[in-house]
Amino acid sequence: MTHDIAETLGFHHLQGELNIKDVSDSELHDQELNRIYDVYLPNKVYEGIEDFISQLKIPDNNMSVSSFLKFLGDNLPPDNNSILKICAEKNVPIFCPAFTDSGLALQLGFHNQNLNLNHFKDMLNMVNLAWDAKRAGVCIVGGGVPKNFILQSLQFCPNSAQYAIQITMDRPEQGGLSGATLHEAISWGKVNQDAKFSTVISDATIALPLMLWFLKKSSFQN
């Protein structure tokens, strides 16, 4: 969400050197450029986000993270490419269970020390969504905290996921959740034993656009 806000405010990510063996991270540091593999993020991006954050008048210091992200989206300028803005306009909740692990949260903490976002509200809201679903399905891009946040909600519901897709490049042997198979989720009761599911071993920036293109094409044909 930090990077989404940056782009919406007009601060852009830069294409860096494709051959990272030729990159000097010390030189990038001196130039105030932060490297994310082959993408560079100037320090001025965070300065722009800080200016945006410092001007916000937060209405409730004890709101859920999803409610706060809705508030941020409402205050962003119009942008059809912004996840936060579009979801706020369409009233689609964004759950971010690891929100405090972000540059955005750091700046919020510095400027709003009384802010106490309630993660438990979001946890219960996610469980309620899963509980109310007549037929549950999940599409997981990557893994980590968001993956478990979704799947653990299904674990305690009458109906576990009957459809599941996972796009990942991680391996299951290390025992980390990002590489854990959907087969493994069956043992936890998170994915139904009779579910239709598939794990796609691929770069998500390749696989996800192709999947969405196919869905869009299929919807037009039907």
Tell me the layout of helices and strands.
Blueprint: H1 2-8, E1 14-15, H2 25-30, E2 33-36, E3 39-42, H3 43-54, H4 65-75, H5 83-90, H6 103-111, H7 119-132, E4 137-141, H8 144-155, E5 161-168, H9 182-187, E6 191-201, H10 204-221
Parallel strand pairs: 4-5, 5-6
Antiparallel strand pairs: 1-3, 2-3
Helix pairs in contact: 3-6, 4-5, 7-8
Can you describe what's shown?
This protein is an alpha/beta fold and 222 residues long. It has two domains: 2-119, Deoxyhypusine synthase (Deoxyhypusine Synthase, 3-Layer(aba) Sandwich); 133-221. The chain contains ten helices and six strands, in the order αβαββαααααβαβαβα. The protein has helices at residues 2-8, 25-30, 43-54, 65-75, 83-90, 103-111, 119-132, 144-155, 182-187, 204-221; strands spanning 14-15, 33-36, 39-42, 137-141, 161-168, 191-201. The strands form two sheets. It has a three-stranded antiparallel beta sheet with strand order 1-3-2. Strands 4-5-6 form a three-stranded parallel beta sheet, with helices on both faces. β4, α8 and β5 (161-168) form a beta-alpha-beta unit. α3 (43-54) packs across α6 and α7 (119-132) packs across α8 (144-155). The longest helix has 18 residues, at 204-221. It is globular and about 55 Å long. The two termini are 34 Å apart.
